[in-house]
Amino acid sequence: MNTDTMRERFTRVASELLDEDPRLAVVLAVISADRFARAARAHPHRVVDVGIREQLLVGVAGGMALTGLRPIVHTFASFLVERPFEQVKLDLGHQAAEAVLVSSGASYDVASGGRTHQAPGDIALLDTLDGWTVHVPGHPDEAEALLRHAAAGTGTRVYVRLSEQSNGTARPVGPGRFQVLREGRAGVVVAVGPLLDATLEATRGTDVTVLYASTVRPFDAAGLRAAVAGTTAADVVLVEPYLAGTSVSFAADALRDVPHRVLPLGTAREELRRYGTWREHVAAHGLDAAGIRRQIDGFLARG
User: Which of 95, 163, 253, 259 has the most CB atoms within 10 Å of its CB?
Assistant: First the structure.
């Protein structure tokens, strides 16, 4: 039984991809550099550690992309999307440069690092830009499949969001498609990435359809519409492992001609000024099975 984490799987697979594809490069800012030591010896011109300079991290990736390489750029989410956002916007987006950003740390995996290491708003921030594909795998096997898909792609800017939290079972990934895992008539629950297990437990015995999303951008509007069409009430619950409400506008757009209600579950905007563990933060934000069940029950009862 394989018990590696998403981050461990990423560094192993990315090293293998460097051996297989001369187009690829890996750009680092200290984080995980030790895990790429062998790859750096084998490919010294395609594994670059810029030091603790996150703006330079993305700038170098943009330059590599413009020379024809496909850079895989990696550090914690707060240092990959939030701190160098201007470079993400300009050196990648404005220059139409293609890259694969792979983060670890998720919303609060590194809770002991404090607020500087937390990034619940990363996807909401990327949503202000055009043309990004966003993967949120829920299992190391899914992370590997989505990374390989992203690395092989052309004409795309991709963000792969890795986390310590993981589901017990991997699901087949179909980038851009929601998977129907359970069918019901009382509403639709969309579970994103590592929150699937808690969502399935929370909805056990309830008459709802459960969709699973390991790719959230592009948003599978057709999949959501089809699921809602099979319900008696167009009630939608979004269970996301980042800022609550991040995908509400996408769901609303998908259902623009359908009277509907949406309950957004995710991390709160209010900062939790505690350290603890990521598991404790999950519970504090009501994203464990008990918290999800309580909120879904209340929402459906009010309908």
Answer: 163
Joined tokens for residue 244? 């609550």
CA distances from 40 to 17, 31, 174, 191, 275 (A): 13, 14, 32, 37, 34
Share of the chain above pLDDT 70, in %: 99
Mean of pLDDT over the chain = 96
Q: What is the DSSP letter of 74?
A: E
- Domains, the chain, with CATH or none: 6-161 (3.40.50.970), 179-302 (3.40.50.920)
Tell me the CA distances in angstroms from 1 to 168, 169, 280, one per residue in order. Answer: 11, 12, 27
Phi first, then psi, for residue 258 (nearest 5°) are -125, 120
Q: Is the pLDDT of residue 1 over 60?
A: no
d(CA 98, CA 78): 20
Q: Residue 105's closest CA among 192, 32, 3? A: 32
**Number of CB atoms found within 10 A of residue 52's CB:** 12
Residues 133-153 as b or e (16 or more Cβ within 10 Å = b): bbbbbbbbbbbbbbbebbbee
Indicate if the pLDDT at residue 81 is higher than 60.
Answer: yes
Mean pLDDT value of segment 113-127 = 95
Is residue 186 within 8 Å of residue 164, measured between CB atoms? no
Burial of 8 (0-12, 13-18, 19+ CB in 10 A): middle
Greatest pairwise CA separation for the chain in angstroms? 60
Strand extents, DSSP E, 53-175? 70-76, 100-104, 132-135, 157-161
Cα angle for residues 260, 263, 268 (degrees, 5° grid):
150
Residue 213 to residues 33, 135, 137, 195, 236, Cα–Cα distance (Å): 30, 9, 8, 10, 14
Q: What is the CA radius of gyration of the chain?
A: 19
